[in-house]
Amino acid sequence: MFESVIAVVSILALLTMFKTVRQGNIAVLTVFGKYRRVLQPGLNFKIPFIERVHRIVSVQNRSIELDFQAITQDQANVYFKAMLLYSVLDSNEETIKNVAFKFVDERDFMTALIRTIEGSIRGFVATKRQAEILSLRKEIVESVKESIDHVLETWGYHLLDLQLNDITFDEAITKSMAQVVASSNLKAAAENEGQALLITKTKAAEAEGNAIKIAAEAEKIAAQLRGQGIALFRREVAKGMSEAANEMKTANLDASFLLFSMWTESIKSFAAESKGNVIFLDGSAEGMNKTLREMIAMQALDE
Q1: 233 Cβ partners below 8 Å, 6+ apart?
Q2: Which of 70, 218, 224, 293 has its Cβ near the most Cβ atoms within 10 Å?
Q3: How far from 163 is each of 72, 86, 137, CA to CA, in Å?
C-alpha cells in the first residue's frame, strides 16, 4: 500500500515537473505566495509541489473598444467610440513582475485602464468648445498618450495606439450643425452662382461691344467704298458727257440734243425700273423746255 502511494506521488511529481509556456506568453512562478522567477516560452522545468504558476502574462498586442460620454466647456454632450491598442512594455523580469502583481487580476487592470483613458479625454474635452471638438481628433489622442504613458509604464504596459472612431453629439446639436453646414453651402453656392452670372454677363457685354466695334468698322469701310464708288461713277459720267459734248461740237450740233437724249433715256429707265410704281413727270412741252433750260444752265455752270 505504501509503495503504491509512493508510486502515485512520483508520477504526479514527474507530471508537474515540466511546464510548457506558449509562444507570446511568460509564466510567473511563486513559492508559497512569493515571487520566484519567470518561465519563457517553450518547455520549462519547475520544482513540483513548491513552485506554482501564479499567472500567465501575454506579451502580445491587445485591443479593447471604449464607449463613453464627455461634456464640453459650453455644456454640450459628446459621445466617443474609441479603439485602444496596448501591450506589455517589454519582457524584462521587472516589467513582468509589475504586470503580474500590480493588480489582483486582469479585470481590475482593465477597469483602471478604461477609467484612466476616459478621464484623460474628459479632462481635455472640458477645456474645449463644442464647435472645436471635431477638428481636434488628433490633439485629443496626443493629449491622452502624453498624460497616461508614464502611468502605464509603472503598470508594465505601453499604449500603442488610440483611435477615436466616432464622435457624435446630441440630436439637437447634430441637427443645428447640419443646418449651419447647409446654410454655409447655400451661401457658397449663391456666391459661386453670382460670380458665374457676373462673368457670363461681362463676357457677353465684351462680345457685344466687340461686335458693335467690328460692325462700325465694317460700316465705316463700306461707306468709304460706297463714297469712292459714287465719286468714280460721277467722274466717269462727267467724262462721258464731256466727250459726247465735244463730239457734238465737232459735228456742229447743239448740245441741247445731248441733254434731250439724256432726258428721254431717264424717262425710259423710270418706266422700265418702276415695277408698277407710279411716277409723276411733267410731260408737256413747257415742262420739257424747263428741264432742258435747267440742264443747260447746269452745264454752263460746270464749264
Answers
A1: none
A2: 70
A3: 20, 12, 9
165 plus 120 within the same structural domain: yes
- Predicted confidence at residue 130, as pLDDT, reads 83
Do 73 and 141 belong together in one domain?
A: yes
Residues 144, 147: Cα–Cα separation, whole Å: 5
Percent of the chain exceeding pLDDT 70 equals 73
Question: Residues 179-236: pLDDT tens digits?
Answer: 777 777 778 888 888 888 888 888 888 888 888 888 888 888 888 888 787 777 767 7
Query: Domain check: are 52 and 133 in the same one?
Result: no
Sequence-ordered strand ranges (E) for 133-279: 157-169
Number of separate domains in the chain = 4
Q: How confident is the model at residue 270 (pLDDT cuts 50, 70, 90)?
A: low
Looking from the CA of 286 toward its CB, the CA atoms found within 13 Å total 0
Residue-wise over 10-38: b if at least 16 C-beta within 10 A, else e?
eeeeeeeeeeebeeeebbbbbeeeeeeeb
Predicted TM-score (pTM) above 0.70: no
Q: Phi and psi dihedrals of 238, rounded to 5?
A: -65, -40
Give the bridge partners for 67, in sequence order.
Answer: 81
Domain that holds residue 13: 2-58
